[in-house]
């Protein structure tokens, strides 16, 4: 069983930055899985893909976050990151790490003045 643990969420003002981290517990190496991704779900909305990175480093982003968010990995720490810059109120959501088929519990990101 793989447990993914997210951290780094919180309250930030518009224009601010946050970095989310996702680490796998146990002996599982998340790099043995091809794709790692971040999703988000805002109240009353469906969960949507925010960013995805393959083992080869190919990245995909939602149009709404292109140029502002960056997904990356750190093999030595068995961790996936989501750097979020120039945050907007519409980025407010619960952010989930996904290393298919496993999901984290989510971390709240609130962008508000």
Textual characterization of the structure:
Strands 2, 4, 5, 6, 9, 10 and 11 form a 7-stranded mixed β-sheet that branches. It is built from no helices and 11 strands. β9 and β10 form a beta hairpin. It has strands spanning 4-7, 10-12, 18-24, 36-41, 48-53, 59-61, 69-74, 79-84, 93-99, 102-103, 107-111. It is mainly β. The mean pLDDT is 94.
Observed structural traits:
single chain; 113 residues; mainly beta; 7-stranded mixed sheet; 4-stranded antiparallel sheet; 11 strands; globular
Low-confidence stretches: none
The number of E-state strands comes to 11
Number of helices: 0
Backbone CA Rg: 13 Å
Mean pLDDT: 94
Strand content: over 45%
Compressed to H and E, one letter per element, the order equals EEEEEEEEEEE
Short recap of the structure:
This protein has 113 residues and is mainly β. The chain has strands at 4-7, 10-12, 18-24, 36-41, 48-53, 59-61, 69-74, 79-84, 93-99, 102-103, 107-111. The strands form two sheets. Strands 2, 4, 5, 6, 9, 10 and 11 form a seven-stranded mixed beta sheet that branches.
Describe the secondary-structure layout:
Elements lengths: L3 E4 L2 E3 L5 E7 L11 E6 L6 E6 L5 E3 L7 E6 L4 E6 L8 E7 L2 E2 L3 E5 L2
Parallel strand pairs: 2-11
Antiparallel strand pairs: 1-3, 3-8, 4-5, 4-9, 5-6, 7-8, 9-10, 9-11
């Amino acid at each position: 069983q793989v447990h993914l643990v997210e951290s780094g969420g919180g309250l930030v003002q518009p224009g601010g930055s946050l970095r989310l981290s996702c680490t796998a517990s146990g002996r599982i190496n998340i790099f043995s899985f091809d794709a790692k991704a971040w999703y988000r779900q805002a109240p009353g909305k469906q969960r949507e893909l925010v960013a995805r990175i393959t083992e080869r480093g190919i990245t995909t982003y939602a149009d709404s976050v292109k140029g502002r968010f960056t997904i990356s990995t750190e093999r030595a720490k068995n961790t996936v990151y989501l750097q979020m810059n120039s945050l907007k109120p519409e980025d407010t959501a619960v952010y989930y790490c996904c290393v298919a088929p496993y999901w984290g519990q989510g971390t709240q990101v609130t962008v508000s003045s």
